[in-house]
Amino acid sequence: MSECYGLSTQFLLGSSLMVSPVLEKGNSTVKAFFPPGTWYSLFDMRQVIVSKQGKYVTLDAPLQVINVHLYQNTILPMQQGGVLSKAARTIPFSLSS
Predict the structure, then answer these.
(1) How many Cα atoms within 13 Å fall on the side-chain side of residue 87?
(2) SS3 at position 85
(3) Domain count across the chain
(4) Which has the least CB within 10 A, 2, 33, 36, 67?
(5) How far apart are CA 72 and CA 49, in angstroms?
(6) Ranges for the Glycosyl hydrolase family 31 C-terminal domain (predicted)?
(7) Does the structure show a pLDDT above 60 at 47?
(8) Domain of residue 92, residue span
(9) Nearest alpha carbon to residue 12 among 1, 28, 24
(10) To the nearest whole percent, how much of the chain has pLDDT over 70?
């Protein structure tokens, strides 16, 4: 999608995890481009953005919020961190989908 070529204000981790950070001091919103598909907020799966042909959306971005969105039909293994690697190995994984 050619609209994505010039974007330098957001990025993909892999093919399905999109990060849209605030890059300007004092801003509490960010304008993010969503390629076609359904995108779910990683931290609140009730927040869904459906983009039919690709669209820009203004997202709230207070200091305590990181805008990370998961692409449709993606399964993402997640685990809470531990202070030490040994402790982390005892914490079970969960799946976000």
Answers:
(1) 5
(2) helix
(3) 1
(4) 2
(5) 10
(6) 3-76
(7) yes
(8) 2-96
(9) 1
(10) 90
Per-residue tokens: 4: 């994505």
pTM flag (> 0.85): no
Total Cβ atoms within 10 A of residue 34: 20
Q: Tokens 């950070």 correspond to what residue?
A: 21
Element (H, E) at 37: strand 37-41
CB 56 within 8 A of CB 31: yes
In DSSP terms, 78 is beta-bridged to 94
- Between 6 and 53, name the one with better pLDDT: 53
How far is it, in rounded angstroms, from Cα 26 to Cα 21?
13
> What Å distances lie between residue 64 and 8, 22, 78, CA to CA?
22, 11, 20
Give the CATH number of the domain where residue 55 resides: 2.60.40.1180
